[in-house]
Amino acid sequence: MKTLEDSDMHTLGSELPAMFDGVKLAAVATVLYIIVRCLNLKSPTASPDITYQDTALSHYLLKSCPLLTKEYIPPLLWGKSGHLQTALYGKMGRVNTPTPCGVRKFLPMQDGATATFDLFEALGDHSTGDDITMVICPGIGNHSEKNYIRTFVDHSQRQGYRCAVLNHLGALPNMELTSPRMFTYGCTWEFAAMVGYIKRAFPETLLVVVGFSLGGNLVCKFLGENQSNQDRVLCCVSVCQGYSALRAQETFLQWDQCRRLYNFVLADNLKKLILSHRNSLLSLSSSNIGDADLSRLYAATSLMQIDDSIMRKFHGYSSLKEYYEKESCVHYIHKVTVPLLLVNSSDDPLVHQSLLAIPRTLAEKMPNVIFALTQHGGHLGFFEGAVLFPQPLTWMDKVIVEYTDAICHWEKNRPACQRSSHRDMNPCLQSTRVTLSG
């Protein structure tokens, strides 16, 4: 004879499979929701948001550079996540990376440092027939052997550009320092030495200046420091820089967009790079770095701590604030008069949205500046592809060369009296602000 408890147990037993199925379904739904949110799959693709002034040059550039006005389409499954774009760039740089053949140049500096850069000759004639050299400044702690630099150099060579790539002081593996300092956020000495060498070695060449991330800050500061630095410069392109280190330092301590975590990872990489040169930094008699500074370096968990204990002392700055103020391009970039393309991504986890007001305001006020803000791309990612696998060339690689080609043809077709300095803008151009939004 069945009891009431037996009947309840039988009913519960028959419902358990259905309950487990419901839990599984809920778990799957939750995972899918998280994936969709994390991968940002619902975000639509769009053309870059372009801020510029209504000038003849701007109209010509936007007509000649379709990549700036058409949709940027990242790989469907992961390309809409700025974190994954940034992580893939950080881990592998690029896919199917070529190995361009260049010659390494060594330049002795006045303070005893030895600057180095790699020179890559063009693999054909430029479409204008002119001799044009790209002078390239990589990102923090990077050099010519990084995959993203190699890919960009190979692409530029094939379009007829000679390329000179700065190796940040102390960044090359197995290259000892010859003075007690390394690269810093805005020291332009080595870049200036490279540009000076190119001008002397190739007296007929015209220059295109390109900077990535920290390199973008450095090249814009270099051009704005002295008007003569813009001689023979056709244009400048800056990608994914932050413009003001002083404003950026507070955002790097926030957990928004995991920025604090990125700060820790970047600091750890920089720490390892500095410590690889600790013998040189300590042994040279003119060094400003002591054992106590290295002790603080070991304990550092952020870029700001490293900058305060080590980096600012290379040039004798009395405080971190002074270091950030003097080395940021925000105080120099408005003096750049050559055509200037500033590129950033909205989902760049390293560059806070508040910093993007700087290039946008600049483009609203200066007729030579175009600011392109993509919706996706991360930090120096900008991968393109259909569903899963990215293409070898990125949107960034292609847009820099496309913009540069357009500038070269614009300059070639101008009357000789207008292009003698390679930097004067047409004073008759209209100066009204226009913003294109995709």
From TrEMBL:
SUPFAM superfamilies: alpha/beta-Hydrolases
Annotated ranges, domain AB hydrolase-1: 133-386
Subcellular location(s) per record: Cell membrane
Single GO BP term: steroid hormone receptor signaling pathway
E.C. number: 3.1.1.23, 3.1.1.6, 3.1.1.79
Assigned GO CC terms: sperm flagellum; sperm plasma membrane
Record keywords, A-Z: Cell membrane, Glycoprotein, Hydrolase, Lipid degradation, Lipid metabolism, Membrane, Serine esterase, Signal-anchor, Transmembrane, Transmembrane helix
Active site, per annotation: 213 (charge relay system), 348 (charge relay system), 379 (charge relay system)
Domain of life: Eukaryota
Biological role stated in the UniProt entry: Progesterone-dependent acylglycerol lipase that catalyzes hydrolysis of endocannabinoid arachidonoylglycerol (AG) from cell membrane. Acts as a progesterone receptor: progesterone-binding activates the acylglycerol lipase activity, mediating degradation of 1-arachidonoylglycerol (1AG) and 2-arachidonoylglycerol (2AG) to glycerol and arachidonic acid (AA). Also displays an ester hydrolase activity against acetyl ester, butanoate ester and hexadecanoate ester.
Homology family: Belongs to the AB hydrolase superfamily. AB hydrolase 4 family.
Protein name: Monoacylglycerol lipase ABHD2
Organism listed in the record: Seriola lalandi dorsalis
Taxon lineage: Eukaryota, Metazoa, Chordata, Craniata, Vertebrata
